[in-house]
Amino acid sequence: MPDMISRQQAEALIQEQLINTIQQDTPKNSIFMQLARRLPNMTSKTTRMPVLDMLPMAYWVNGDNGFKQTSQQAWDNVYLTAEELAVIVPIPEAVVDDASFDIMGEVRPRVTEAIGIRVDQAAIFGVSRPASWRADIITSARQAGNNVAPGSDLYNALLGENGVISKVEQGGRMVNGAVAAMAMRGKLRGIKTTEGMPIFKSDMQGPTQYALDGAPMYFPMNGAFDTSVAQLIVGDWSQAVYSVRQDITVKILDQGVIQDPSTKEIVYNLAQQDMIALRVVFRMGWALPNPATRLDEDRLYVPFAYLEPATAVTTQKVTFTVKNNEEEPEAVEGAVIDLDGARLKTGTDGTAIFNLRKGTYNAKISKKGYGTVIETVNVDAAAVSKDITLIPKE
Questions:
Q1: Rounded average pLDDT over 193-206
Q2: What does pLDDT average to over the chain?
Q3: What is the CATH number of the domain that holds 334?
Q4: CA 181 – CA 306 distance, rounded (Å)
Q5: Total domains, the chain
């Protein structure tokens, strides 16, 4: 066979083409920060928000010269505490110089996406929730009894008399948005009448806008939605508020050392190892003020409800028993137990029962005429009982 130069022999001379775009998904934003109401930026770590706590009442007057009764109105304080999300991404300068792409420019939007994921996980599901933050939306909704089992009739679980939308309405709020796992789209399309006709209306020739009872639906794709806890969350998202103390701040470091957070050992010395590091910092706080309404004067309802998965998440029963300090203690009815923002009132037997996932919670027990008691509750793998003694004010 005649000699020739083969591709293998000339491989060192053949240049590979590098596509000038990176195949990747578009960075996703925080669904919580998209739907919740943003307040003016915080000017300090803690921001105080006055919230209507008690509504006045009017009375009929008995006769022409009857005595007019008095009433009162009261306000409570709700606090937003700014907590910090941050990350450092180190990289050798030689790698940056030799790369065909702007590595730092590629990293920044992905870090911003990661911050949004953490916000959604903490505010909605309580994952890695900062200790100073109130209870997450799922925990608060559960304590208000706003969790609905899917059962065999999905239509009724969503739109029925005791469905998730009805749960929100019973507290005097209107649902203005729904957040659901992607799998919910198929379940909605599968809802049919007894005659087998689809209830969910869709246009097969164009994009379909998903909605429940007129409220738009959102299907977050940033990976923060925890399908082991909920399939769908509905609520009046305007009642959830957040404020930013420090917007996303990016700084390039070329001096200093980076330590292991656990061992405190130096991992990188930027100057000595010719490295740079991208440092990103973000600080924000959020709250669910839940002001008193004529349908919820005790502020016990929560403007959110959720549809549970087929197998509900495991929780532990936490029972508070509140009594006075008499020689023979008596049950205190109507004491408010505020567990990181989730509120219940004690019944005639002085008890209130929470159902909580594993974690540490802060409880404030109060009633007019008594001193306030602060307790810490640690929930693990067993039921917890807390005996509380309220002492009358002098």
A1: 67
A2: 86
A3: 2.60.40.10
A4: 12
A5: 2
Among the residue ranges 191-200, 285-294, 337-346, 359-368, the one predicted with the least confidence is: 191-200
Average pLDDT score over residue span 189-202: 73
**Residue 257, SS3 per DSSP:** strand
CA distance 321 to 170: 27
353 — phi, psi (to 5°)? -120, 125
Cα separation, 200 vs 188, in Å, equals 6
Angle ∠(256,106,279) on CA atoms, nearest 5 = 25
Residue ranges of alpha helices (H) inside the chain are: 31-35, 93-98, 103-120, 137-143, 154-159, 164-169, 183-189
Q: Is residue 86 part of a domain?
A: yes
Instruction: Write out the H or E segment, with its range, that includes residue 92.
Output: strand 83-92
How far apart CA 304 and CA 174 sit, in angstroms, is: 10
Q: What is the pTM of this model?
A: 0.85
Cα 309 from chain centroid (whole Å): 18
Tens digit of each residue's pLDDT (9 = 90 or more) over 66-101: 888 988 888 888 899 999 999 988 888 888 887 777
Domain that holds residue 298: 27-56+75-313
Of 313, 338, 353, which residue constitutes the final position of a domain? Answer: 313
Helix (H, G, I), strand (E, B) or coil at 123: helix
Backbone torsions φ then ψ of 189, nearest 5 degrees: -65, -20
Angle formed at CA 293 by CA 291 and CA 299, multiple of 5 degrees: 55
| Residue 19: pLDDT over 60 | no
Region 308-328: what's the mean pLDDT?
89
pLDDT of residue 374: 92
User: Residue 105 is encoded by which pair of tokens?
Assistant: 């420019």
* Residue 179 near residue 35 (C-beta atoms within 8 A): yes
Half-sphere exposure of 200 (CA within 13 A, CB side): 19
364 CB burial (10 A radius; 0-12, 13-18, 19+): middle
- Shared-domain flag, residues 185 and 309: yes
State the CB neighbour count (10 A cutoff) for residue 124.
28
Cα angle: 14, vertex 17, 20; to 5 degrees: 160
